[in-house]
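User: Study the chain.
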Amino acid sequence: MPPVDARRLIFDPSLLSDGNRVRLLKDGAEAYPRMLEVIAGARHSVLVEMYTFASDATGKKFAAALSERAKAGVTVRVLYDGLGSRESSTSIFQSMRVAGVGVTPYRPLGWFSLRRRDHRKIVIVDGSTAFLGGMNLTDEYAPVAEGGQGWHDVQIEIEGPEVRDLVTLFAQTWTQEEDDPLFPKGAPETPAPRRGGVQVAAIGSDQRPTRKAIGNAYLHALRNARQRVWIENAYFVPSLKFHRAIRSAAARGVDVRIIAPVKTDVKAVYHASRALFEGLLRRGIRIFEYQGPVLHAKTSMIDGVWSSVGSYNLDHLSILNNLEVTAIVLDEKFAARLEAHFEADCKNSKEVKLAEWRRRGARRIFLEKFWYQFRSLL
């Protein structure tokens, strides 16, 4: 149980459930084998909500595992985003349907606006174990040694009563898109709290009034931070509210550090993000540019006790439009593990210094200002 004072960082304490076990999984090398292991042991149900369910080697591994469980009589449901999975072959989804998997797209292209997408990455097994974070099911996150691209990201594994809220979140989206019942054999039982477990709040952003649920939780923690705020985010183009909260924390003497990627799959966001760097650096905020493979993580640590892992980027699409999910963990030991991961990434980064940053070329400054004007679309 964290110190009572740590609850000042929680926007809505009623969202927390106690008695959960959490585990940090780094990159596809750790996350994918563990996810496949738990799926293979499923006895009741497997629920998958994924922005990108690719038809590459990684996607086929998961499709085969899900199909095998469906053939064994396990209820298996897959909800994939119509835009995020637009390049996936329809054959991979059809093969799962033939095996008995319930498969449906979220907002197929041409039906609805392109702007509101299901950006979540969730796998729930037997209503008792869940995985969430920034990793899609694609070779991009698989190890280079196995033919993947080695993107850098993290997942969190949760076991315990908080998984119930993730089942509810999945069910809400599933019933919006599909008429078939989610659990034809009945819903799984809610797991009992574990002795010595930690407090977790799995928060999803969806339709009104929950559209700003994750943002409200994040902003509340930023505004109440007293010691440190460490943020690692793949698409760092925060709204004015977030920008002010980060700068205000630094003004209070809080140790604020940000890791942003050098290699990215969205170059426009890279430039728009850099438009903010000078103002942040002038306020004493330390910024690190990760030098490794594509950085896709969305994590944060506040005051050594509040941690978040999820799909939520600090950009306008996550803040205002997309369906997202983030796990907030109130636990010093988990925060220490995530901070150690952050510090390791700092060592693989180049710290941005204000004097050097001011000497960047006119072309870079133009691109930063240009793309920042379109930040609400990125």
Summary: Residues 33 and 39 are 10 Å apart (CA to CA). The first strand starts at residue 17 and ends at 26. Residues 332-347 form the longest helix (16 residues). DSSP finds twelve helices and 15 strands in the chain.
